[in-house]
Amino acid sequence: MSDEKPIAIGQSMLRRDAPGKVTGETPYPGDLNFDGQLWMKMRFSDRVHARITHVDTAAAEAMAGVVAVYTAKDVPHNEYGLVIKDQPVLCGLGGSNPAAEIVRCYMDCIAVVVAETEAIAAEAAKRIVVGYEDLPAIFDMEAALAPDAIQIHPDRPGNTFAQYRIRKGDMAQGWAEAELTVEGVYETGYQEHAFLQPEAGVSYLDDEGRVTVVVAGQWVHEDLWQVSHALGLPEDRVRIIYPAVGGAFGGREDMSVQIVLALATMKLGKPVKIQWSREESMQYHHKRHPFKIYTKWGAKRDGTITAIEARVLGDAGPYAYTSTKVVANATLLASGPYVCENIHVDAYAVATNNIPTGAFRGFGAPQALFAAEGQMNRLAAALGVDPISLRTQNAYRDGSITATQTPVVPGCTLVEVLDACARESYWPTPDGRGGWQKTPIEQPADPARRRGVGVAAGMKNIGYSFGFPEHSWAGVELRGKDQIEEVIVRAVGAEVGQGAHTAFVQMAAEAVGVPVEKVVLQSHDTTLMGSSGSASASRLTFMQGNAIVGAAKKALAAWANEERPAKGVFEYNPPRTTPFDPQTGKADPNFAYAYTALAAEVEVDIETGLVWLTRVVSINDVGRAINPNLIIGQVEGGVVQAQGYALMENLISKNGRILNPYLSTYLIPTVLDVPTEVKTVLLEYADPLGPFGVRGVAELPLVALAPAIAAAVHDATGVWVDYIPMTPDRVVKALRAHGIGAVV
User: Fold this and answer.
1) 291-464+582-737, which class in CATH?
2) Gap between the Cα atoms of 198 and 719, Å rounded
3) Is the pTM of this model over 0.85?
4) How far apart are CA 661 and CA 664, in angstroms?
């Protein structure tokens, strides 16, 4: 590796995939077509919870142009799931899985139709007759946890996929030491991923006879493993390829069309294509978990936090997806990134008959930090102290003992991040006591509009947590004679729009010591290299980068031995993590973190309840900025996605059915809604384990904006709003309850 001035890292070079995407030359799954391809449509459940009594496919099969109809009996191992294999591929009678006889939500699939055209397949799917015996359904988390509640899964008594507890210190002592307490009940809603490319894909047999699925996803090897398992095929008879991926945000971690496409090609030996409509996409893939968090914090008058307790409920829907891990993250962050000797947390991933929930950018952190940072802001207000100063006083530092009774991993920079947030936003003046003093802001001329500023902070793990296996493979091949003329990098980590592939190229160029023009990346195909893991958990640049650096070292050693071409393959394995102790919560949950703090400025119309987010100052410690402009884009995108989560995106579910499955009725921020300014400040305190000091950043700018907005609304109006999204009707209701604004 070169010790000279950086060749590639730290440079804001153009994304490798930008020209093709801008010109339209780059194909997405829906753009792909094969000669002689057939079309597929999926028939979803008509009931939210019912036992299937019969499935009659005769009318569908009799239609001209219908080639095949597949039901539960056609799936060799009729189950799938990223963490727990608890969901049938197809629900119905017969087959390998007795649990498949019951539908547990509207997104359960009962049959798939393969036909000569998409229109024929769609019509045939409507003609499938399904008989049901309705079962009681449950949609409320508290009701699901009641002792007499119906059991959605008989083998999971109590309607929970996971329960976690933290028991740190002596709560009686913590409350006795508290001179002031603040309590809150915080609720967060669903969020739709709203990626631009709906679920689509095509399957075929490749030249070696492998069942090949070309689809958008986040982890090619996990898709391969789940397809292989469900269809009973050896892994070397399945191939997964990703073309361009039109956004993900966690929404492509779980299966959508992969298994059924592979099933059809396995049965027919022909190419098969499917593409969901926007309505299907919004109805039938998982969402961000709604949470309800009851919490109480105690502190001394000098600002020392003495006790934290929380009861955390996350609505998982009827299948596990990644809920066990999302709720684990929320458990960890229910006390925020702050030192407290006495912490008591009970958390539950609750089974209901609502739409399934799973991975979404932030992965439990946005929900938990909405509560924890809300409590910190309440505590600052109750104590009459500056909110940044209070955070700095209690913040994690290297060596701090966390909620899991273990030291925070080395490289903690929360204090540095908070200091930068103060300087760069509304607290530029030290108060002379080691804290900061806020600068007053000018109020609008319109008496109906109030302006306020709020702050929040947070942390986000990098990589898989709580003992989930973590690794990443990469291969580097050096070609040339006397000098390296070409560098081939094989790394299959998914490019889902975040710019990861460009970062891979830059890190490879830096590791080998050549210009980026000499680097060729081969990716997105399970046949190229071992697993890189998923594009999730802010891990990909960190993990794949370490693997690329390791492979480059091996290739350079081979080059020095005059091997041509010189090849190196490397698997990076980070320090192991451990799950919560079931009684105490003690754990080593993560091997790396990134830290953020941000300030938000809002204007609130006290008559209508409309909240405008006018300015955001976002501070993020990225460890080392491989490509600064790409990171700034990540921050700006994360801020706007968090803005939608906090203020606009109100997905309405009633009795398990989504009532607004359209982008015309589920509102996401547009160019007319984004803040006037997003000031991005990148700090570069190297992570001890990251390649070139890298920390993951993809989720970081999203996790703490909602509580900063809530604090800004309080600063403007004196009213706390503890439910997101903070839609105008909810804000008006809160204002009127405090006698603010006209009575209408």
Assistant:
1) alpha beta
2) 39
3) yes
4) 9
Same fold: 18-26+471-572 with 32-135+193-284: no
DSSP letter assigned to residue 230? H
* Kind plus residue range of the DSSP H or E element containing 419: helix 414-424
pLDDT tier at 744, thresholds 50, 70, 90: very low
Nearest Cα residue to 44 out of 98, 7, 95, 88: 88
Q: Which residues pair with 309 in a beta bridge?
A: 296, 344
Instruction: Tell me which of 3.30.365.10, 3.40.50.150, 3.20.20.140, 3.90.25.10 is the CATH number of domain 18-26+471-572.
Output: 3.30.365.10
| Nearest-10 Cα torsion for 173, 177, 181, 186 | -40
Residues of the chain by 3-state class (helix, strand, coil), percent to 5: 30, 25, 45
Distance CA 669, CA 687 (A): 33
The amino acid at 470: E
pLDDT the model gives residue 7: 86
- Can you point out the beta strands (E) in 196-304? 200-205, 211-215, 238-241, 272-275, 291-299
The number of CA neighbours under 13 Å toward the Cβ of 523 is 29
Q: Is the pLDDT assigned to residue 70 strictly greater than 50?
A: yes
Q: What are the domain boundaries of the chain?
A: 18-26+471-572, 32-135+193-284, 291-464+582-737
Q: What is the pLDDT of residue 1?
A: 42
Confidence band (pLDDT; 50, 70, 90) for 721? very high
Q: Which fold has domain 32-135+193-284?
A: Aldehyde Oxidoreductase; domain 3 (3.90.1170)
Whether the predicted pLDDT of 2 surpasses 50: no
CA–CA gap between residue 144 and residue 352 (Å, rounded): 7
Half-sphere exposure of 214 (CA within 13 A, CB side): 18
Q: How far apart are CA 507 and CA 513, in angstroms?
A: 10
Q: Which two tokens stand for residue 405?
A: 């009774």
Q: Is 511 helix (H, G, I), strand (E, B) or coil?
A: helix
